[in-house]
Amino acid sequence: MKTINWLGWVAALVVGQVIGILWYGILLSAAWMKAMGMTEADFVGTEWRMGLGILNMAIILIGLDWLIRRLEARTWLGGAKVGLAACVFFDLTVVALDYVYAAGNLSLFWIDGGYQLLTYTLGGALLGGLKLKPRAG
């Protein structure tokens, strides 16, 4: 655990939450709720889900940091490429199964997938490129 890039991890976690608030709360709120078949009233008393979302993202970012270190992609661009690849080859393909087999709403796939692409790519860039400076001896 001490090899984790904690600075990049915290920054990626915060940035991911800010993107989520902007993406789902402001930019695509109406389209997302329509695709989900929900109204604002459906969200009353569900604030606890935000905590689970943060925990989920925290775990994803630990895995992404591990992958970036294993692939030695410890630059801004290298981390972004690993994040993008992880999203496309793992996250989006798993999420797509809901639409392949459960006949999900395809517009929801694009909304959720766009958020995932952004957070994985920016999270990877932060994990790969944001580092504490070594202490001067």
From TrEMBL:
Any keyword Transmembrane? yes
Q: Sorted alphabetically, which Pfam families does this protein's record hold?
A: DUF1761
TM stretches of this protein:
7-28, 48-68, 80-102, 114-132
InterPro entries assigned to the protein according to its UniProt record, in alphabetical order: DUF1761
Keyword tags: Membrane, Transmembrane, Transmembrane helix
Q: What is this protein called?
A: DUF1761 domain-containing protein
Q: Which organism does this record belong to? A: Caulobacter henricii
